[in-house]
What does this fold into?
Amino acid sequence: MLYREAGQFKTTYAADQQLFPIRQDRIGVITLLLIAFIGVPLFASEYWFSAILIPFLIFFLAALGLNILTGYAGQLSLGSAAFMAVGAYAAYNFQLRIEGIPILISFLCGGLTAAAVGILFGLPSLRIKGFYLAVATLAAQFFIVWCLTKFPWLSNNSSSGVISTQQLIIFGHELKTPTEKYLLVLSIVVVLALAAKNLVRSSTGRAWMAVRDMDVAASVIGIRLMPTKLLAFAISSFYCGVAGALYAFCYLGSVEPDGFSLDMSFKILFMIIIGGVGSIMGSFLGAAFILLLPILLDVLLPFFAGLFGLPFSSATVSHIQILIFGALIMFFLIVEPHGLARLWQITKEKLRLWPFPH
Amino acid sequence: MIKTCKPVLAAATLAIAMLSQNALAAEEQFFPMTSYRVGPYGANGQSFYGGFIDYLNYVNLTEKGVNGVTLTYEECETEYNNAKGVECYERLKGKAAKSAGPIHTMSTGISYALIDKSAQDKLPLAMMGYGRTDAVDGSVFPYAFPLVTTYQMQASAIVKFIKEKMGGNLAGKKIVYLYHDSAYGKEAIIALEAEASLNKFQLVQIPVAHPGNEQGAQWLKIRQEKPDFVVFWGWGVMNQTALKAAQKVGFPRDKMIGSWWTGSEEDVVPAGESAKGYMAATWNVAGKNVPLIADIEKTVYGAGKGNLSDKAKIGTILYNRGVSAAVLSVEAIRKGQEKYGKGKALNGEQTRWALENLNITEDRLKQIGATDLLPEIKTSCDNHEGSGKVKIQQWDGDKWVPVSGWIEGNKALIHPLFQASAKQYAKEKGITPRDCSKEK
It folds into this structure.
C-alpha cells in the first residue's frame, strides 16, 4: 500500500530517466543518506565508527569495484585485494614523494595507478574467459604482493615492508577523530557509488552487460570487445584502489603487503556472490553480511551463553561463530542463488501489491 | 507467560548479581586481551595466553592480587587477523578506560595497526619480541613497548654467539641468512648487514616465500655456498621443513641458529630426528624446573582454575613465554602502584609510566621464582626495550637445553638504527619527540 507507484506520472524525459524513478525509492535513499551523514555521527560511539562503519563502507566500495568487473562485465577476478594494495601503496607514495599534494588527489592518483595496473592484468581477458581468466588474475594477486615486498622503494625502505600512512589533512584541517574519518569515507563512497549506479545504466554499462551475456553476439552488434573489457578492468581496479587507499589511511593506519592476501580477495568475491552479482545494492548487502554478521554473532553468542549459563570461552565462541556463519551462507545460497539483492527485489515487488495481492 | 519470563528473569538476576559483585569487590586491574586461540597460529596463541592468564590467576590466588587489587581480564578472539584485531581493540577499549594493563597482541600486524590508536587512546601496547622495533625509542613512541628484546638485538646477539664459537673472529667467514619473506623476516636484515660490515663476514640472504613448505632450491643454494653458519628466521610450517631439508642436503643442524619464533616445541617435534642439535635464541627457558612454573601448576591447576585444557602444554617454550609476559605486566602494575597509590587500579597512562620505569633485578626475579624466565630489565624513556639479552638453547631431541648465558646484542651498533628509523617516523607523522631528559 505504501510502496505503490500508481499516480506517479512522468511527463518529461528527465523524470523518466532519473536515477530513482519511483518516489518512495527517492525518499528512502535520501532518508538513508540523511541518517548516514547526520544521524549516525550524532549517536554512534567510537567503536561503531572505527570497528564497524568505516571498514564496512570501505569493503562496500571494494565489492562495488569487483561487481562492476564480475557482475556487469562478466570477467571473473581473484585479484581485488591486490588492486587495493596498489591503491594503498600508490597513495602513500604520492603523499610521500610529492610535496604538498592534497590527500584527496593522492587517493585519486592511487585509484588511477590501480586502474593502470588493472588494465595490464586485464589484457589476458581478451583471450581467455571464465575460470581460466580467474587463474590469470590470481597471478596479479601474487605478483603484486611479491612486488611490494621485493622493492623496498615502494615502502620507503621500511625494514619490514610495512607502511605507516601520513596524516589526513584536508583544507588545512587534520582529520583525527573516527567521526571525521567516517564522514570522509562516507562522502567518497557515496560519490563513487552514485557514479557507479549511473555508469551501469549508461551505454558503457549496457556494453558491459552485452559482453557478459555473450561476447560474440556483442561484437556482432558493434561493441568493440577490447576497449569494453579493459575499461571494465580499469574502472573496477580504480574502485578497488580507492578502497585500498581508504583502508590504509582511514581504517588501519598502517598496512603490510601480506595483509592484502588472497583471503581478502576471496572475502570480497564472497560479498558479491552472497549480495548479488550484477547489482549495486548487492555489493552493499553482501559487504554487510560478510563483515557485520560475524561481529554480531561474536557479541550475541557470549550473551546467550551467559543467559543459559553455558561455559563458553572466546575460542569456542569463535568456532561456533564460524559454524553458524557457514551455515547461513549455505542457507542463503540455496534459498536465493541470486543473492540478497534479489531477495530485496522480490520483497519490493510483493510490497507493491500488498495488502491486495492478486 | 511464566515460561517466557524465565530467561529474562535469569538475565536480570545475573545482571544484578554481577553489578553487586562489582560494587562489593575491591579495586580491579583490567587486562584487555586481544588473544587468539583459533586460526592458523591458534596453537601458539593457546600456549602463550594460557600462560599469561594462569599467572594472573596465580597472583590472584596466592596474594589476592597486587596489593589487594584483583587482576581481571577479558579476551577477544583476533584469529591473528589485523582487521579483527582492530575490532577487538576497539571493543575492549571502552572497558579499559578506567584501568588498563598492557595490551599484548602477539602479532606484528595487529600491533602495527594499533600503534597510533593506542597512543591516541593512552593505552600502553606491549610488543614482546615482535612488532615495531624502533619503538625502543620512547621519545617518539610513548605508548609502545618492544619489551625485553627486539629482532635486531637478537640478530646481533646471535652473531656474537657465533663469533665466540668461531674463536672470536668472523673475518672472511660466511653466514647465510635464511628468512621468511615477510615483514617479520626482513626486520633483522638491517642489523645483520651492520654486523657484517663491522665484523667483516660475508652475509648471504636467502628468502623463503610464505608458507615455506618447499625449500629445495634454497638448501641447494646453501650447499653451494658452504656457509659456516645459517641464521634462520622462520615461521610456522617453514621451520620443520627447513630442518628436514637441512638433513637432506647434509648441513649440520648444530650450525643452524634460529630466532625465538623458530625455537618452540611445535617447530622441532614434527621434524623428528632431524631437529637434533638445532639451536635457537630465546629470552625465556622452557621446562617446569623454573620454580614459578611448577608452582603455577600446583596452585592454579590444583585449585581447578587453570586456563589450559591440555596440561601437557605447561612448561613449553610458548607457555613459559606467556608467563614471562604476565610477570612483566604484573611487575609494572606493582611499580605503578608504588607511585600512584597502593591498592589502587592503574589507568592506561599510569601503566605507561610504570612500563617506562621498570627495574626488575635478578634478585626480584628470584623472589618470584622466575629466574631464567626473563633477563634483568630496566627500562627508561629512551630505552623501551630494557634488556636486549637472549639465551641460546639447543634441542637435544627431547627438550630444549640452554647452551649459553645471557648474551647482549651490540647496543652501540643497533640502537642508533632504531633512533634513525624512529626519527623518520616522527617526521612522516608530524610527531614532536618528547625530551627524555625531562621525564621523571
In short: Chain B touches chain A through 45 residues (CB under 8 Å). The first strand of chain B starts at residue 28 and ends at 35.
